[in-house]
Design goal:
alpha+beta, Beta-Lactamase, Rossmann fold, five-stranded parallel β-sheet, 26 helices, nucleotide-binding, HTH_Fis, transcription
Length: about 675
């Protein structure tokens, strides 16, 4: 291309033949004030002069030699604000850097204000950049701060740029060649960050700009996929809110404040069109909002906004009671913030500290032992520890050690070869340790393991080796072990029923979930969460509790912990007609508060009876339906049972109709 040729949308940094000597002379005369106004210059030089004049007007110090460094606190806030950009971009930048081993240069990732978030590349170039020019993580390179440069000019222009040597406004950057490309959000206009390849000017490569364009496009594609997933979550929340507010105007906006969906009305359409340019005025119409967050990280995705009725609405239409705003993440008040760890939520301070510890342990990749009473949510925690761990892309397998026959345990855990025993699969079969691969193996009720299996498990935990039943070929276990139990393993060790060495292998890290009676603040939290969950599950319009019902729920000791809360609330929701009162609750909740749950006796012969919990749930459900319908035929129809089956259930579960129906049994049999 000729030096005076000017491509469409000309930029002095792309599309021109570089003229290093001429640009250096032009730069010196510009800063010395010796430019001849009548001099005939190429389009390339005219555009450069315009850039330098703009930097002069901005007050940029031409003599600066080091980039501005943010304080550690300010840099930390920038990192937290751009966590998604970091998580998406850094793996791609590092992967590309692996192919640039012999190329002297560094790859820089900067965010939307020009702050450098990540640097990787040639150690010698990186050291020189840090020492001579202050190009380090936490330094700022927008044009207002550092004049024309790769990062700042790409931000300013919103397009790829290549700033070589004296094209930089500041003389301190003349020894560098910078090629940079913006990373755009899914809308194609919003700049999220910059990918920059910087090298010494003498090592300039023509391919540098194409490299940054390619990397930026890869990051954009991954960000676009993430944004689409966020958009679908936001649309799901909008759909749920629309069913909750069928007669109100709603507007869903993403994290950047862009409208995503709105109620199909002319008023909402106009408000959505005005939102980007008149957001402040439209926000005055917002009377409530529902924050939508990512289920795994809790990061904000957007919000569903409830808009006030049009002016004069109350004069024309009858005032109507508005249902409570749906709350997928229940709040416990400003003084009791809620901590969420997957599906496990708590506002109890000690439990919150335990959850924060688990969040850190998830990354540590060590064996973990979780203890706590039945129903406290041990598997919920184990599943989310896996989801937060480096193994999250690998399998997660959960095994109830108390539900496997002692004779089948070895083959179940380690697998077997063909012909190992009668009735075996002729092809052989992999056990849990093989199937888990590089993932996580969750051993629930590990205290129920028989002695022989404890010894076999210890061998795997010690050196990672095992053999399939019927084989002498050693295999390696690569999975992480998370174990859980409701038993006191130290007591079992004292009684000689659990191996001490296995205990210490399992509890590299150990955390205990307090029972629900020890964290009363969580009762209301769980009740509200399960009520909303059951409302959605059964397609109900609204669910509310009377004060008497809520007081009874708070007073109860909940020996079955969160599992019992869930069962009780589901029964109450099914038995109620939108309002849950005392009659809808299981009978034990409306009686005098029971004493604290006693310690469960040890020994396999006294293991908790799982069917007892099922029978208790059936009894609660049938009693609640009887109180609601007060008619056996209607109860049988609602439950999908024959009347004869229902009467048999009465006998099995000890349900006396006269007691439930207030002594008037005969009039309600038909």
């Amino acid at each position: 291309m000729r030096p005076d040729a000017s491509p469409p949308h000309a930029s002095p940094y792309v599309g021109f033949q570089k003229d290093l000597r001429g640009v250096r002379s032009l730069w010196e005369r510009f800063h010395a004030g010796m430019l001849d106004l009548e001099e005939r210059r190429t389009t390339y030089h005219e555009l450069l002069l315009g850039e330098w004049q703009r930097c002069t007007a901005l007050g940029v110090d031409v003599a600066m030699t080091r980039g501005r460094l943010l304080s550690s606190e300010e840099f930390r806030r920038r990192q937290e604000a751009e966590q998604l950009l970091l998580e998406t971009s850094v793996p791609i930048v590092r992967e590309v850097s692996n192919f640039l081993v012999d190329v002297p240069g560094i790859m820089i990732l900067a965010e939307r204000t020009g702050t450098v978030l990540h640097i990787t590349g040639d150690p010698a170039v990186r050291e020189r950049a840090a020492t001579h020019s202050g190009i380090v993580e936490g330094s700022q390179w927008n044009e207002l701060t550092a004049g024309t440069n790769g990062v700042g000019t790409a931000l300013s222009k919103g397009r790829p740029v290549h700033v070589l040597a004296a094209e930089h406004f500041c003389e301190g950057w003349h020894s560098w060649s910078c090629a940079a490309t913006p990373i755009f959000d899914a809308d194609g206009h919003t700049v999220l960050g910059i990918v920059d390849f910087t090298t010494i000017d003498a090592d300039f490569r023509d391919q540098a700009l194409g490299l940054t364009v390619s990397v930026a496009n890869s990051i954009q594609a991954r960000m676009a996929l993430h944004r689409e997933l966020e958009r679908r979550l936001l649309l799901t929340a909008f759909s749920d809110a629309s069913r909750h507010y069928p007669h109100d105007d709603l507007l869903a906006v993403d994290q950047a404040g862009r409208p995503v969906a709105h109620t199909p009305s002319e008023r909402c359409r106009q408000l959505a069109e005005r939102w980007p340019t008149e957001a402040a005025a439209v926000r005055e119409l917002v009377c409530d909002s529902l924050a939508v967050t990512a289920p795994s990280t809790g990061a904000p995705i957007g919000a569903v906004l409830l808009l006030a009725k049009p002016a004069g609405y109350q004069k024309v239409f009858r005032s109507e009671a508005r249902p409570a705003w749906p709350a997928p993440q229940p709040a416990a008040g400003p003084e009791r913030p809620v901590t969420r760890f997957g599906d496990f939520v708590s506002c109890d301070p000690s439990t919150q500290r335990m959850l924060e510890a688990l969040r850190r342990l998830a990354e540590a990749d060590v064996n973990l032992l979780i203890t706590g009473e039945t129903g406290t949510g041990k598997e919920l925690l184990a599943r989310h520890v896996h989801a937060c761990s480096p193994r999250r892309q690998q399998p997660y397998l959960a095994i109830n050690c108390g539900a496997i026959s002692e004779h089948l345990m070895e083959s179940t855990f380690f697998g077997y070869v063909k012909g190992a025993f009668s009735g075996a699969d002729p092809r052989g079969r992999a056990g849990y340790f093989e199937s888990a691969q590089d993932g996580t193996l969750f051993l629930d009720e590990v205290g129920e393991l028989p002695p022989a299996m404890q010894a076999a498990l210890l061998r795997v935990l010690e050196d990672g080796s095992f053999q399939r039943v019927g084989s002498c070929e050693p295999r390696r276990a690569r999975c992480r072990i998370i174990a859980a139990t409701h038993r006191d393993l130290t007591q079992l060790i004292a009684e000689g029923r659990f191996r001490r060495d296995l205990y210490y292998r399992l509890k590299v890290a150990q955390r205990c979930i307090p029972p629900l009676r020890e964290r009363p603040d969580d009762i209301t939290l769980l009740v509200e969460q399960f009520a909303e969950l059951m409302r959605r599950k059964h397609g109900l319009q609204s669910v509310r509790f009377t004060q008497a019902a809520m007081d009874a729920l708070r007073r109860y000791a909940w020996p079955g912990n969160a599992r019992e809360v869930r069962n009780a609330i589901e029964t109450a929701v099914l038995c109620a007609s939108g309002t849950i009162d005392l009659d809808c609750l299981p009978p034990e909740l409306t009686q005098a508060p029971p004493p604290a749950a006693p310690q469960e006796p040890d020994g396999p012969q006294h293991a908790p009876d799982g069917m007892a919990a099922v029978r208790d749930y059936e009894r609660q459900l049938i009693v609640g339906m009887l109180r609601k319908y007060r008619n056996v035929s209607q109860v049988a129809h609602a439950l999908g049972l024959a009347r004869s089956t229902l009467y048999r259930k009465f006998a099995e579960l000890g349900i006396q109709q006269a007691e439930v129906l207030g002594g008037d049994e005969g009039s309600h049999l038909s």
